[in-house]
Protein 1
Amino acid sequence: MISQRQLFLNHIGQTSDFPLALEIVEAEGIYLYDKNKKKYIDLISGVSVSNLGHRNPHVVSAVKQQLDKYMHLMVYGEYIQSPQVKFAKLLTDNLPINLDSVYFVNSGSEANEGALKLAKRYTGRTEIVAFKNAYHGSTHGALSLMSSEYFTNSFKPLLPNIRFLEFNNESDLEQISKKTACVVAEVIQAEAGIIEAKQSFIQKLSKRCKDTGTLLIIDEVQTGFGRTGKLFGFMHYNIVPDIFTIAKAMGGGMPIGAFVASKKIMDSFKTNPALGHITTFGGHPVSAAAAYASLEFILENKIIENIEYKSKLFLDNINHSKIKSIRGKGLFYSVELEDTEHLKAFINKALKLGLVTDWFLFADNRFRIAPPLIISEKEIIESCKIINNALDMIS
């Protein structure tokens, strides 16, 4: 009989020749369980998706309730669907006043694609500015925002008129002009190994965009929904983007994304042409119900209030000579080791000890710490012990 592993390798499209290939049969809280009942701590939350842990009961209940009412009804935007309306209201109630219109999609890449189109449609401009070592998705438009030739060369031509600037380089901001439709930025560059924007840089970026009539798009796909210690990362910087994009943790484990803007900006999709952006499954009612339950849980249980304490607990308990540096914010850290080989060895040892982590696209000597935000003090201590033990095991 062919094993599940072999069927996986034979019939599931692969992204590399070396998938982790863990055969997970159950997940609960911060833990994953394989077919042999081995338990793993998920220290990356499915890459910042499971912020409330796996199978959060409040989210699961909302999904089941919505399944008993209806699933897909009609292509996006035609019917009034309660899960979408409720979530959009709750979300915008917790945002700056100008961010009052939500366009639902299915993923982070799609959110960024929609945001790019919206900016070009609203401004009538074509130039787009992005930052080196940023990752905004792998669809053609989103991929066009990636500076790495390694990841983009095989898929060219991509979108034209993309200008790449150095992150945190204030002098580069002069290149933003009245020809620029939008600047797409992260306030914390995730795949660069978690690099925080400097306050002065973000302030000057925001001002430059205002001065030139350029829309500022902030990508919150990884940093959203409490990951950094605020509901959204831009809230650390006293700025308000014109558009921001969300996904990953948004659905509490269900697939959903969105881009958010003012109604004035968003309404530009309604004309010239009508149906300026369309999607079949965006804001699927089951996913929207899960998203509402997830945000409701974050707010009612004051999840964000404990992030700073938990963050400090991690930093206080990871003590090892093989660690070169740690950087990040909230429960979103990257830990630097000597080189890529040490990192690969560490990840393999950690996996054997029951802990899942990974590296970054543009920082392959750093591993990720991004656990579910509901992780307990005891579970943090347990995670740190495994990290330190795995580091002991590499030469």
Note: The chain has two domains: 4-55+302-392, 58-300.
Protein 2
Amino acid sequence: MIALLSGKIAYKGISHIVVDTQGVGYRVFIPLTTFYELPDAGQPVTLHIHTSVKEDAINLFGFYTLQERELFQLMISVSGVGPKVAMNVLSRISAAELLEAISGGNLTKLIAIPGIGRKTAERLILELREKAVKKMAEDQIPIMDVQKKQSGMIREDVLSALVNLGYKSNAARDALDKVAREAEGELPMDQLLKKALKILAG
């Protein structure tokens, strides 16, 4: 099983590259985040590899960082999430942002990724949340800061929804402030919106 691959880039494309290792060319599928970090064709490169073995094919998926490979492997362990979907996720969002979204239960952030529906996003959060929090601790990502950021993102999403419904921005902010003062802990988006609407309706 190939876990690490070093050689020269014989071909460089957006979705895959060919790594020449002592005269043998390996096709490696990559996310955009890895593509942006690659040197030019002809230059040496080292990638962290996930090897996928099927009856009719052996595919290599390469990542510039070990963290990306670990997140890829976590995602494909979730029912309904295959390598194509996982690669698409990592092409649209950084590893740190993905960990934040999963650990914070940010459905909005995940659903915004093309190819990720609500059910898939919910499965990612349900099955990977604890692992994501553990991973953040291992990588020394400040969990409290992430939770605070997620709370702010939810508030902004609700504020935007209220403004789109026709309420004045200042009135909507005041309603959200009142909800925050009365609430015990952080509220999910649907409850925050419901309570704010109740206040605005008088």
Note: Residues 143-164 form the longest helix (22 residues).
Protein 3
Amino acid sequence: MSRRSNRPWVMLALLAAIIIAAPAAATDRFGDVASDSVHHDAVSELSDAGVTAGCADGRYCPRDPVLREQMASFLVRGLPRATANDSVASLTSENDFSGAPASVTVQATGTAGGEGMVSLQGTVSVLAEGSVVSCPCEVEAFIYRDSDDAQGPSMWAQLPGEATGSGRAVVSVPVSWATTIPSGSTETFRLAVLINDGQPMEVTAQGTLTAITTPLS
């Protein structure tokens, strides 16, 4: 067979090799960020977090320069933010003694369309003045979200059945919860305490609640 007659097969083989070797375009975020780019995952993660929405029409414009004002927006959307509250509340009694001594209102970092992580840390200290009746009592503490009443893990402790020499019975309960909220949204979280199986008198609770929001989950 002559070399001339082999040329169509050679061209087909080269074309197939080019098609196989060509980088595939990203299909999950931006059409101009190749899926085999070393920056693909980082760009997608920033998009998920609401730190960037790209330039326009589903493009990221990866080769465009960044202005100082744009850089400031990127950094602010991506920086963690901390909010804290420390307050005291008298616990009220219906069937059990309960209350929400501390709350924080947070805004998730990033812009609409992404997702933010909220890490909440709290401590509630329950103080019963004078005599404590029908104790020891079970003390439950947890953090909940105002908008849908979703709550984090409960922590338990026992309020002593007898007051100390100062005439007080005290117990402290640490709580924590990590959850997500849509980027750019605002949510209020509350530290709640509930006392079961007892009738302590003149009960107050001091709560401390801190929330740190970050854009990347």
Note: Residues 51 and 175 are 30 Å apart (CA to CA).
